[in-house]
Amino acid sequence: MPKITQILFDCDNTLVLSEELAFEACAELSNEMLEKHNVADRYTGPDLMTTFVGQNFRGVVTGLQQRHGFKLSDSEVDEYVSRELGKVIETLEAKAEPCVGVMPVLEELDKSKKYGMAVVSSSALSRVQASVKKVGQDKFFPKDHIFSAATSLPVPTTKPDPAIYLHACKVIGKSPGECVAVEDSRSGTLSAVRAGIPTVGYVGSYGGVIKQKEMAEVLKEAGAKVMMDDWSQFMDCMAQIEAA
Known about the structure:
Blueprint: E1 6-9, E2 16-17, H1 19-36, H2 45-52, H3 57-68, H4 74-95, E3 97-98, H5 102-112, E4 116-121, H6 125-134, E5 146-148, H7 163-172, E6 179-183, H8 186-194, E7 199-202, H9 209-222, E8 226-228, H10 234-243
Parallel strand pairs: 1-4, 1-6, 4-5, 6-7, 7-8
Antiparallel strand pairs: 2-3
Helix pairs in contact: 1-2, 1-4, 4-6, 8-9
């Protein structure tokens, strides 16, 4: 196994407690979309999060069309995505907080210089940048090492497509085997694993022990090599992967 020299962090609910805030912001637009197409179902933020966690809003829109049998034009999709992004960024800039325990780990990694660090997200680049800046994490990541499946690729996509991880590796100049990813969702874990990147599954942002155990099994089935429910366990997870 190649020497690990790079850590690729998911953003939402891995570095920044942002998923609940973001899904609350996009539920309003999702329900507007459903009403417009005479679909009776409605979603709350938690409903959307349970169904679409790890995907960007373009992925949510695609999923809603498939589930409820309606079709939007490309221009309509683009309009909804643009409106959602503005709502989410406004919310994140006001309310986002770092995931519990992550800041000391980032400080330690930054100080040691043992690994390069990057952010690899499904969310739009401006949203990711706003999130990490709000919580003071932007100092840990070079500006050109923050990647978005919605923005950084020639054709927008979302996890579990591995394209964004492969793109990040190419830009950084690392092979997938030289990297470790940290992911909290099934779609994110599948994205990293399909790119050939050993992955740490993080479940600490899920509420309650029962939900954390449930998600740990989901991430293991998706291919995560090791699991953690607290950021204090991260260095041990890295040691396990490096020893494999």
